[in-house]
Predict the structure.
Amino acid sequence: MSPLIEVRGLRYRYEDGTVGLNGVDFRLEPGESVALLGPNGSGKTTFALHLNGLLRGEGSIQICGLPVEKQNLPAIRRKVGMVFQDSDSQLFMPTVVEDVAFGLLNLGMDSAGALAKARAALETVGMSAAETRAPYHLSAGEKKRVAIAGILAMEPEILVLDEPTTFLDPLGHRSLAELLAQLPQSKILITHDSRLAAALCNRAVFFEAGQVSAEGPVDMIVARFGWDLAWERSKLRS
Amino acid sequence: MRHVVVDCWARGSSLLHRRDPRAKIVALLVFLIALATTSRGLPLFACGLLLLLVAALLWARLPVWGALVRAGIVLPFSAVFAIVSWLAGDPARGASLLIKSYLSALAVLLVISTTPLPVLLRGLEGMGVPHFLLDVGQFLYRYFFVISEEAQRMNQAAAARAASSWQWAVGQRFRASAGALGVLFARSYARAEDIHRAMLARGFQGRFLLLDATRFRRADLLFTAFASLAPVVLRIALDRVSA
């Protein structure tokens, strides 16, 4: 079976000369979910932005067999749903339902079809009651759910989630983790939360200085790099 | 974050809010032409138009006093030209300029307070305004909120560190404001880039598409007829009385 994502030798340099990615190889198999771990600035988000064609580096990227090239971008953006770290960047329409329908209308769907799908996506994330509210009136957890609904409505095969639990309180964190666990799509999860990574992913990839420095089962990678907040807490208490 | 009052007003659900944007645009244009072409008997005509606008504000369930105050935002600009006319020995022209600019601003405020901007732009599109201009309008609208929110965040951060510019000398204030504006621009630019990326990620191809296609109903036709005829009939009636 061909991989959902296949990346070979991906390199990217920002306009100011900073090296973002320095030869990344990566595969995502069907049904698999992978956590991207690593320090801030190690290239995780830069890598994720390439999967949707939002950044273009050197090397090859194939999404469900399609090379990431200009003519394939509409199809690729339908297959890869990207949930950004800051929901305020993702929500820009006047009401929640219009925001969720935004991607569907861009895909060429008519208003009635887009409305029905947007409502179904809002129901999936438990936000039906907020349909007519303005996104900027929602709490951080609600915004995140609406942002996820906007992606789910487009029925992607792969979800890319960039630190989805940022700004969430413990209850919102738990509730979002439960929601994500129910979603059938393959996931790429960028996170610093090793427990969330272990709960949602089969595998972890560790980024350092724009490169993949290790990959394997989540527990093994977390232990190898000391990537566990519980260790920090016990250290601080002692 | 606090949001622009007019934008909140536009989210109402009164009968006036529900009218097709094209109906409101046509009525506004007729209103502005009727006002701009009036010279004889302007004070009385202006009172009549003001009453019409106040009635429309009440119908739209908008705060009348708040709208009357906000429409005054044009007065400092028109006052400059009014003063020039007055100094040139034509005080009547100056007064006429003030009255007309204020009533025009109030009429425009009424339309944008009862029509969310994306819907208003869709109405303009239906009337043949080029897409390019409308998309620029839509982006300006979105990024205005981005800048406003960034400015509020910076203001909160400054207040949290007990910054109070009132104690500073003018030069210090100028330097601090210039620095803050530079930072505001850089932060807004970065945020706007994030938003644009998020839009592209959901297939944005350069044109905003709305969920509800506007439909011109019989009620919109009646509204257009009434709202367009009202200022015209008022002006004709006043002309006949004064003749």
